[in-house]
Amino acid sequence: MKVFFSIALLLFIGVHAEEVKEEDGVLVLTKANFKEVLEKNEYVLVEFYAPWCGHCKALAPEYAKAAKILADKESNIKLGKVDATEESDLAEEFQVRGYPTLKFFRSGSPIEYSGGRQADDIVAWLGKKTGPPAKELDSVEVAEEFLKENNVAVVGFFSNRDSDEAKAFLSTANSVDDYPFGITSNEDVYKKYEASCGKVILFKQFDDGKAVFEGKMEEAELKKFVTAQAMPLVVDFNHDSAQKIFGGDIKSHLLMFLSKEAGHFEKYAEPAKEVAKKFREQILFVSINADEEDHQRILEFFGMKKEEIPSMRIIQLQEDMAKFKPESSELTPEVIEAFVKKFLDGKLKQHLLSQELPEDWDKTPVKTLVATNFDDVAFDVGKDVFVEFYAPWCGHCKQLAPIFDQLGEKFKDSKTVVVAKMDATANELEHTKITSFPTIKLYKKGDNGVVDFNGERTLEGFTKFLESGGLEDAAGVPDVEEVPVDEDDEHKKDEL
């Protein structure tokens, strides 16, 4: 009997020793309990994080909030987290290459999480992956609760679910993960929300409260409507909203750089909403609080100083990013509207960054170029102009500097060869886009043809290339690697 009791006690202790811990409603997963948790739960969203990761720290409260929302709903969806720095075997097994990485496990099978980073976004995405594309709103009470618990919700009013319009709505609901959709044929719900059969209404707990779809009932048109109407008229830029701003379908953004401390948001952002309403499917209005330290690099990216606040810019996120600066520094609704209209009409010229031209730019063997003197020097038909595009922070560029100085010294007395350099982080050219550092190009005399240098970055390699007029690269592997513009650890540009 004692033996039996001892075995039972050990088993009891063993079972409870393996109990999964929770932190703020989120399961703490390890290699020891990971498989068991997936076996016991049909749906598990797992965050692989690093304790030192800033993005992970920003996600943590929203992730915990999402876990609470699901628990309050008595949902069977669980949220878990894995410290990937401790559980490296799990991180490797699921090919975690950055932090945070979120994966959704349905009956043990993982798929990539593609939703937002706010609690409502997480819950909405999970709802789409675990239930019908649109929730059935069969009473006023159900509809009221549905709208109350969601910051943004899209409702279709269809009595005939087999109609082409209803099918287009449900197809849209199935393909849009960021927002919850509901559908109803209940007459009381129609009356409550003053809707007629065949209507689609987007309800939101901000701005005008709702938007009624007036377009052709097709998936592409519905998605465009939801994308435009689900965002506030003026979106506050922060870590949580960045993904929706830059990952959305609207690729032209009016950025308003403001100071909350100075009361600019009330003075300028609020009046701008009426202008934003006129162009909301063409251009997204975004406010950026210039007081925040994290946003200083965005100002630098636009070549702006704090003294210029309040100010605005337009950015176009196409294959080649373009920036536009207004003529006036005013931020009245009239000035903002005129600026947007000129942009949409194609009447604005790109705003390109340029440093002041140093007085001694041509006094050293390696000439200093900025945006304003670049064309005059590089496109001199009588000379071969060899230019290094560099970044001050780039380690590879620093390694290359003494070799380039030697090259400049070698050709300083030449009448037909110019060796030059340009800081490509502070100077921009309309005709040349730099994607990595260092980038080296030869602007040929005569026809002004441009030849990329891809040979060995040595004095001998450069000399051979120049003496052949850009026809011959030196053989061998480059001894200095290129650094992509967006991959430097300390100077990584934001999504802007």
UniProtKB/TrEMBL annotation:
- Name its GO BP terms in alphabetical order: protein folding; response to endoplasmic reticulum stress
Signal peptide: which range, if any? 1-17
* Family affiliation: Belongs to the protein disulfide isomerase family.
The entry's localization annotation reads: Endoplasmic reticulum lumen
* NCBIfam families xref list: ER_PDI_fam, pdi_dom
Species of provenance: Clunio marinus
The organism's place on the tree of life at top rank: Eukaryota
Chemical reaction(s) catalysed: Catalyzes the rearrangement of -S-S- bonds in proteins
UniProt xrefs under Pfam families = Thioredoxin, Thioredoxin_6
Residue spans of biased composition, Acidic residues class? 479-489
UniProt-listed Enzyme Commission number(s): 5.3.4.1
* Residues covered by the Thioredoxin domain: 9-131, 330-471
Q: Which cysteines are joined by disulfide bonds?
A: 53-56, 394-397
Enzyme class label: isomerase
**Swiss-Prot/TrEMBL keywords:** Disulfide bond, Endoplasmic reticulum, Isomerase, Redox-active center, Repeat, Signal
User: What InterPro entries has UniProt attached to this entry?
Assistant: PDI_thioredoxin-like_dom (IPR005788), Prot_disulphide_isomerase (IPR005792), Thioredoxin-like_sf (IPR036249), Thioredoxin_CS (IPR017937), Thioredoxin_domain (IPR013766)
The name this protein goes by in its record: Protein disulfide-isomerase
